[in-house]
Amino acid sequence: MMKRLSILLVLTSFVLLSSCSRKAPDVLTNYPIPTQPDTLRILGWGNSFTDDGMMYLPDLLESAGIHNVILGRLYIGGCSLERHCREMADSLCQYIYYKSVNNRWDTLSTHFSALQGLRDEPWDVVVMQQVSGLSGQYETFHPWLEEMMQAVRKVCPNPRATLAWQQTWAYARGSNHPDFPRYGCSQDSMYQAITSCVARLREDTPISIIVPSGIALQELRNTAFCDSMDFTRDGYHLDYQMGRLTAACCWFETLVAPSLGVTVRDNTFRMQGTPREVSELQALLCREYSTLASRAN
Fold it and tell me: What is the rounded distance in angstroms from the CA atom of residue 237 to the CA atom of residue 49?
């Protein structure tokens, strides 16, 4: 009897140890961007600032001769971290879902849910962000960010997806955005608040990979090409020329370059042949400031 009990205890211990060793990664763990994967998959889970950041990314990939990157954008205009979580909790289908498989954006659905988007691919990287007006208000990040991170771990087919963050940009100096008074209607104050939140985010969460769109754009605003709109089209969304190009270069240099070993620095894309075309010098500045900001991370 005692012998049988001893065997049973040994077997039980073995099962428990085995199950512990196989348990799924938790939200406190993050993973590096994969190096030289057959296919790199990047999902942006956010709002119109995610759109601004990712819009020209397929064009940069095409110009670089890269055809093994799948991109997704889960979009609700003005969507905060809190609303993303409420969308999930209520199983709502209010996202527009864009996808790029062949370096061209296609609208796959205008009634998609967050969980559908997370499940659509075994994403290697999932990039989140706070809604722009609250991006410098750290108390609004929690507990919603943790819930979103947990959802990625539970739902995404790739449990080792890299959790990343887009640092958004401060509004234009004369912006009439209703959230601008939170920062005293000061671009400088808003930029410092956003930067401070990103620093705290890195301390408090496992997220260390930051797409520094806000840093690159703020540096670009110190050049002679900056006008009264500060590279925005309405005081807060990026313009269709240097603003969006700079942000897309940040996404490329932060997420694609370390994975596939191709830098954006020599990329020749500049919206040639369209009303949005920028000069070679303007494109060079977009690439240089984005590269410097990304590598400083």
Answer: 7
**Which alpha helices (DSSP H) does 22-90 contain, by range?**
48-54, 57-63, 81-89
| Residues of the chain by 3-state class (helix, strand, coil), percent to 5 | 45, 15, 40
Average pLDDT score, the chain:
92
Tokens describing residue 99: 């996808």
Confidence check: pLDDT of 4 > 50: no
- Statement: residue 51 has pLDDT above 60: yes
**pLDDT number for residue 27:** 58
SS3 171: coil
The pLDDT of residue 8 is above 70: no
The answer to whether residue 278 scores a pLDDT higher than 80 is: yes
Question: Which sequence spans correspond to the domains of the chain?
Answer: 35-296
CA distances from 293 to 45, 49, 210, 215, 286 (A): 22, 18, 10, 6, 11
**Exposed, middle or buried, 101 (CB in 10 Å: 0-12/13-18/19+)?**
middle
Q: Would the pTM count as exceeding 0.85?
A: yes
Strand partners, 211: 166
Bridge partners, 125 (sequence order): 42, 162
pLDDT of 216 over the 70 cut: yes
The H or E element that residue 188 is part of is helix 187-204
Burial class (CB in 10 A: 0-12, 13-18, 19+), 217: buried
Mean pLDDT of 41-46: 98
CATH fold of the domain at 35-296: Rossmann fold (3.40.50)
